[in-house]
Specification:
two-stranded antiparallel sheet, about 100 residues, single chain, alpha+beta, 2 strands, about 40% helix
């Protein structure tokens, strides 16, 4: 008979997955060490005057705040695994102990 994983190990596994997904999304999005950006500057050259201008185009670039938020959420889930009891039958009375 297979033993079911405990809630503690399940929560820790979920926390590890959340941390890995958060770091992976941050890394894939550009691993920006500043704040999250919703638009990025693009240098454009005016064809008529030859002057260079900066325009902004919409693009989501996750910053370090995104990384920290995902790691804090994973830490909270991992911390919840320490609150869950190891044995669910600790407080339960057995029929043998009853008078």
């Amino acid at each position: 008979m297979k033993r079911r994983p405990s809630w503690r190990s399940l929560l820790r596994t979920v926390a590890l997955g959340m941390a890995m997904v958060g770091v992976g999304m941050w890394w894939a999005g550009g691993a920006h060490w500043g704040w999250t950006q919703t638009s990025v500057p693009v240098r454009t050259l005016d064809e008529v005057t030859g002057l260079e201008a900066i325009t902004y185009r919409p693009k989501f670039v996750p910053g370090v705040d995104f990384l920290v938020a995902s790691l804090v959420a994973a830490g909270l889930v991992a911390g919840a695994s320490f609150v869950v009891r190891r044995d669910a039958n600790v407080g339960a009375k057995s029929e043998v102990d009853s008078p």
